[in-house]
Amino acid sequence: MLQIAIDGPAGSGKSTISKIIANRLNINYLDTGAMYRMCTLEVLNKMVDLNDKEAIMKCIKAIDIQIQDNRFYLNGDDVSEEIRLERVSQNVSKVAAIKFVREKMVSIQKKIASKTDVIMDGRDIATHVLPDSNNKFYLNATVDERAKRRYNELKNKGLSENFDQVKKSIITRDDYDMNRNHAPLIKSDDAIEVNTTNRSIEEVVQYILERVSNTYD
């Protein structure tokens, strides 16, 4: 079974790169970050206090998450665009840091990976979800570059966001992700680090594919 783990901070290019690689290798792609975004959206929509872990756990316990053709369904509703809104981005790390939430999502992710060839991207894929994978990569880029990418992504979707606010949100999220108690964002010792700052998407894709082929051929 082919398992490719892609970790890294927000805006490092994980999702874009992973989708292309999945297409090139004809394997399944699972955007694990979107799963945590769906959890966060549910919490926000139910107006649950983000400081009340018990209430968040109760809220998440009952949700239904489905992923079909790279579309994301929360309790039957397509929320593919809504989960990318800045209000979700600003709060997802708080929800994702809760141990119960991560354990529930990781359980789903492991189940999927046990049945099919897959590439997953997130923040704890190499360390917790696919620790036995022979294909682990850690993507990174400067904060300014990551903020620019996220800002342009939102702008292209017709969403009006302030660049400084987007950058601040990314810095805050980095801090949450890297310092949370359960499954923090860290580079796995056996992961290959890839700085995507001055590399084109195709350059990064080719770099990863060349290394994956060594274990896949």
Mean pLDDT across all amino acids: 91
Number of individual domains? 1
* Succession of helices and strands: EHEHHEEEHHHEHEHHEH
Strand content: 15-25%
* Radius of gyration (Å): 16 Å
Largest sheet: 5 strands, parallel
Q: What is the helix content? A: 40-55%
According to CATH, the fold-level topology is: Rossmann fold
The CATH class is identified as: Alpha Beta
The CATH architecture category equals 3-Layer(aba) Sandwich
Q: Which blocks of ≥5 consecutive residues have pLDDT under 50? A: none
Question: How does this model look, in words?
Answer:
The protein has a single domain (3-209), classed as 3-Layer(aba) Sandwich (Rossmann fold). Helix content is 51%, strand content 16%. It is built from 10 helices and 8 strands. A 5-stranded parallel sheet has the order 2-6-1-7-8, with helices on both faces. A hairpin with a 2-residue loop joins β4 (71-74) and β5 (77-78). The chain is globular and about 50 Å long. The mean pLDDT is 91.
Brief account:
The protein is an alpha/beta fold. It has helices at 14-25, 32-45, 53-61, 86-89, 92-96, 99-113, 125-129, 143-156, 163-179, 201-216; strands at 3-7, 28-31, 65-68, 71-74, 77-78, 118-122, 135-140, 192-195.
